Amino acid sequence: MGRVAIQGVTKRFGDVTAVDHLTLEVADQEFLVLLGPSGCGKSTALRMIAGLDEPTEGVIEIGARVVNDVEAKDRDVAMVFQSYALYPHMSVRRNIEFPLRSRRVDRDERQQLVEEAAGMLGLDTLLDRKPAQLSGGQRQRVALARAIVRRPQVFLMDEPLSNLDAKLRVQTRAELVELHRRVTTTVIYVTHDQVEAMTMGDRIAILNDGLLQQVGPPQDVYERPTNLFVARFIGNPPMNTVTGKVVRADGDRHAVAVPGGEIAVKPEIGKALDRLALAEVVAGIRPEHLELGADGPIEATVSVVESLGHERHVFCRLTDGQPVIVRQQAAEAAPAEQTPARLTFDDANLHLFDPTTERRVEA
Fold it and tell me: What is the tally of structural domains in the chain?
């Protein structure tokens, strides 16, 4: 079983806490992505699962056993690094079979396993080449093949696509997802790239400053971010966030006053605002949910229009200068720069956050 359970794990380096009481369970055969900015503790968490770093506190389980005191070589995991870590003097074949030689697997079985792994990753014709004769994408495939031949309980991948160019990253992302379906092994994948996380993971676990922020399927995390950090980190362009004052009128009517206008709030959210006694909130709206219209509730000025071919990003400024991005389809009429505009949206797509705790306001 490739289940991985992390229970209250903390890692300190002197006075620095890299991972802070991390509790997370990865199901057998799941593809889980650890996502976060540089320095958030995701690679440290991966190294503790691999046995390369010891946790300061907490328990790590792989399968049915606690592995805190188990050496890395005995944990039945395979790790793929960002740097490929291939032996330059060995052929592709020798690089792939190296872990099998270390385990004294007999020659016929080694050959069969190497050819299977090479076939999965399209390396059949490259087995006699040296790493220096390969492209970056081919070298990464060799590193993956070397991990696959071991048939481990868990694959650990630490930003394996970071050294590839943009086009090759897209191609290799799809190949990794297909590979996971074929080998049906648990994968824990570390990245700072939210596009990789959204397109590859069964679930995403988002970290910041060593703390777990949110765990869930990619679409759930995108549609219901649990706090401001997740809201601003997930999405490209990121979610627009503007601080405003809560306006309470007669009956159940609530609104948020922002620079340039007021945003109506649904009654059930209004009740939550009263329950929390909030005078201010941070209003969030994703760029694809904003529209430019003649009678929208928020006044703004178009500052810059970026065309991306299939869509455009319209950068606007509110009356106090705060930036807001509107995502438009290419078929829509492009606005002129430095012209006034009105912003409109459906309140079903509005997110509100407590400015003090930065937690999502729930109905």
Answer: 2
